[in-house]
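Please go through this protein, sequence plus structure tokens, and consider how the sequence yields the tokens. Keep your notes short.
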Amino acid sequence: MPRHCAECHGSTPNFQVNFCQHCGKTFGTRIHRPTSRKSRPSVVSLPSERIPSGTVHRHHPSVTSKSLRTGLPSSSPSHSSSSYSLKSRPISIERKRRETSHDDSHKRSNSCQYKIICGEYLSSLKWQEVFFNRKHNRCYCNECYPMSCNDTFETGGSTYVIPRNWCRFGLHVDQVRAQTDHIWDQWIITYHGTSAIAAESIVNHRQFLIPGDRCIDGTSIYIHPDHIKDKYEIYTSPTIAYSSLSCYCPAQQFRSKLTNKLYNAQIVLQCRQKPGAFKVQAETVGAGNKRICSVISNDQVEILTTIRAAIVPYGVVIKLTEINRNDY
């Protein structure tokens, strides 16, 4: 690249020469940075357009010379995608911490035989795969959740009783509602015992059933003969020991193809329930002085509500009890 002398206007062909070969004037120091074709900004050729007479040209504030050169809209701090991701990332991390902090301290095992058989039973029900969120799967058998681990946690201002000897398969929860209603921070954990087909109906329609409602197979929900008549509420409990009683949670026989053994299978929905939207009362199954749960007293063991939207299921909890050969 030639150098041009400002004194005599002569041209020096060699760029590396620091003085004019015609008049001897010393050139100033320059650094040559050759621009490759790839590094040059692309130029967008705008088609010429005939402008009608009388048209006034106005500069649009959202269009800059940079946007015309690159063909991209000019950046704005309030609409930057990177700023949005930076704001949303801490929220998602904090939400994940809140969702798992109450019972995530025990080890997880992918090789647990009990968990595998519980999963086999759940697969046999042929529920839709989209229901489940595997990140919240937890097994509470003695191997995965030893006796040295806590029996209870405090969450939502209430006592959460760990479902020992049960295995949970996580369900998807609407994240918009979870954040707006503060489900993971402020709602308590309860259990709802039911049949397999009723549980599928609840999970499928995101709505709890009361007596008189119909399941997805057409069968009606009815009041158990041993229970109080003319009660049309939704019943839950802070302890799975109460929700899994046979009057709420009938067992279904299941033979595993993996072990060739016969089991009684039970299903309970683990839920988040809104405080202030329910009543607490004593047991209604005629237990008398027999203690149902070692943590929750009999006079605080039953929760009832008529507000369907105040209960959100977030896990299907399964228990398998092996049937001895002498029993069949």
